[in-house]
């Protein structure tokens, strides 16, 4: 048998090198190379498909059981595209303490109560610790099995014995394969264990939910191939000191990647927020300058969000620009448009822009509301609390049309608003609404005259 070979692998992107390098030539990160051992023996790759090596006609394929499993949480099912696909792999990422393990143990308990067999594998907690957490969240069920194990070969044996419908792995960075000599969490181990779990999921049609650690930049730790191998990648967003969490889909082979789910962290765990518009604008102060409501659409869901701006004079030569929850570069562009096209001089002012609630919304339809909030704070004049605005603003000051305008108008009407400012181009084909006045504008100056009352 040939001798083993030592190589150096970048822990950020998986790039391999025969010698150690200070900076990765693939991803550009510094001090990420770790020495790993590669076995130089012929490897037997087991078949992971279920076709038996024979091509089948698409029209002749049938399902004996329902192809999706409901998680029991409508918010999660919406993000997944209708439920968890049998044989699919879902990767959950997010900052430490954001609620990944809490969500998974919750849906494991909900599914077990509906006679769905779930195997919860943890490499970070003992079985007794999982029991303590489950008791705190009032979670139980005779169909929920718990396994504290990190060896992939042992996990494979238990899966064959229990034959679960859903497999939960918390987390992929703690699982290791005895066939690879590198430490758990390394590029080689993550790649090998993910491949092994994928074979288990596809062969047994087991829905597999995986927790992935994130780096300080917010990306899933380990090689990028991890995200390519799984079917769905979901990210938890939100501040740890804030009660609201946003679950966003960034990859989904079985649904849309634009959907989001909103949860609230309480003592009993994560609770669905069924009406985010009401929650996000409930504490909005009345007759306060610098506040503007905008109807946003994430995927198929419309919701109202409050954009706040604070403009204050600075005695220093370099004014500050601080943006939270919005695209920073987009806000800087809107400030430039205001100075050039609306004649509002902001070069000597600090500007702070924020979305209330700790959520992030990056769509261009926010532009008009951002501009209105900044001007309101600059002029120290409040905006009509019964008015909302939506529209994309171009660099020449024109207001461009946005998508899903019907949903935005209906959501504003449902929440009791009386006026909505929209791009003039969106007036064509817009359904006639009752109870709300729709005002079309074509440029920034025209919009500001309406929003600021002339």
Automatic annotation (TrEMBL):
Residues 65-214 form the RecA family profile domain. ATP binds at residues 94-101. The keyword Nucleotidyltransferase does not apply. GO terms for biological process: recombinational repair. One of its GO terms (cellular component) is cytosol. Transmembrane segments: none annotated. A motif (RadA KNRFG motif) lies at residues 251-255. It comes from the Bacteria. Keywords: ATP-binding, DNA damage, DNA repair, DNA-binding, Hydrolase, Metal-binding, Nucleotide-binding, Stress response, Zinc, Zinc-finger. Residues 350-454 are annotated as: Lon-protease-like. One of its GO terms (molecular function) is damaged DNA binding. InterPro entries: AAA+_ATPase, DNA_repair_RadA, P-loop_NTPase, RecA_ATP-bd, Ribosomal_Su5_D2-typ_SF, Ribsml_uS5_D2-typ_fold_subgr, Rubredoxin_2. HAMAP family: RadA_bact. The middle region has homology to RecA with ATPase motifs including the RadA KNRFG motif, while the C-terminus is homologous to Lon protease. Belongs to the RecA family. RadA subfamily. DNA-dependent ATPase involved in processing of recombination intermediates, plays a role in repairing DNA breaks. Stimulates the branch migration of RecA-mediated strand transfer reactions, allowing the 3' invading strand to extend heteroduplex DNA faster. Binds ssDNA in the presence of ADP but not other nucleotides, has ATPase activity that is stimulated by ssDNA and various branched DNA structures, but inhibited by SSB. Does not have RecA's homology-searching function. PANTHER family: DNA REPAIR PROTEIN RADA (PTHR32472), DNA REPAIR PROTEIN RADA-LIKE PROTEIN (PTHR32472:SF10). This is DNA repair protein RadA. The lineage of its organism: Bacteria, Bacillati, Bacillota, Tissierellia, Tissierellales. The gene is radA.
């Amino acid at each position: 048998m040939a001798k083993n070979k030592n190589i150096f692998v970048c822990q950020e992107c998986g790039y391999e090198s025969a010698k150690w390098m200070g900076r990765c030539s693939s991803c550009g990160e510094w001090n990420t190379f770790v020495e790993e051992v590669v076995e130089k023996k012929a490897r037997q790759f087991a078949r992971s498909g279920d076709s038996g090596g024979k091509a089948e006609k698409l029209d002749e394929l049938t399902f004996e059981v329902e192809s999706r499993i409901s998680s029991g949480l409508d918010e999660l099912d919406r993000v997944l595209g209708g439920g968890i696909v049998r044989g699919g792999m879902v990767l959950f990422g997010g900052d430490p303490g954001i609620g990944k393990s809490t969500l998974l143990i919750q849906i494991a308990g909900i599914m077990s109560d509906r006679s769905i067999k779930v195997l919860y594998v943890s490499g970070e907690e003992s079985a007794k610790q999982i029991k303590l957490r489950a008791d705190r969240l009032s979670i139980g069920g005779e169909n929920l099995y718990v396994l504290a194990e990190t060896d992939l070969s042992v996990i494979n044996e238990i899966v064959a014995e229990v034959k679960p419908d859903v497999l939960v792995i918390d987390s992929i960075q703690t699982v290791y394969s005895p066939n690879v000599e590198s430490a758990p969490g390394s590029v080689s181990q993550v790649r090998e264990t993910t491949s092994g779990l994928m074979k288990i999921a596809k062969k047994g049609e087991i829905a597999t939910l995986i927790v992935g650690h994130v780096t300080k930049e917010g990306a899933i730790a380990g090689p990028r191939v991890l995200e390519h191998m799984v079917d769905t990648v979901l990210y938890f967003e939100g501040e740890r000191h804030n009660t609201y969490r946003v679950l966003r889909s960034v990859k989904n082979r079985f649904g849309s990647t634009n959907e989001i789910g909103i949860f609230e962290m309480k003592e009993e765990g994560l609770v669905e927020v069924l009406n985010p518009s009401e929650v996000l604008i409930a504490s909005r102060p009345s007759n306060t300058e610098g506040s503007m409501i905008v109807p946003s659409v994430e995927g198929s869901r419309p919701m109202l969000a409050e954009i706040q701006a604070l403009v204050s004079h600075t005695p220093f030569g370099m004014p500050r620009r601080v943006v939270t929850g919005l695209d920073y570069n987009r806000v800087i562009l809107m400030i430039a448009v205001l100075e050039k096209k609306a004649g509002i001089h902001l070069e000597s002012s600090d500007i702070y822009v924020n979305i209330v609630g700790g959520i992030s919304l990056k769509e261009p339809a926010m532009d008009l509301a951002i501009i209105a909030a900044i001007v309101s704070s600059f002029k120290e004049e409040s905006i009509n609390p019964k008015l909302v605005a939506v529209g994309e603003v171009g660099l020449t000051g024109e207001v461009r049309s946005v998508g899903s305008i019907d949903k935005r108008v209906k959501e504003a009407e449902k929440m009791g608003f009386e006026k909505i400012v929209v791009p003039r181009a969106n007036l064509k084909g817009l359904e006639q609404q009752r109870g709300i006045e729709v005002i079309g504008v074509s440029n920034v100056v025209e919009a500001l005259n309406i929003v600021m009352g002339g």
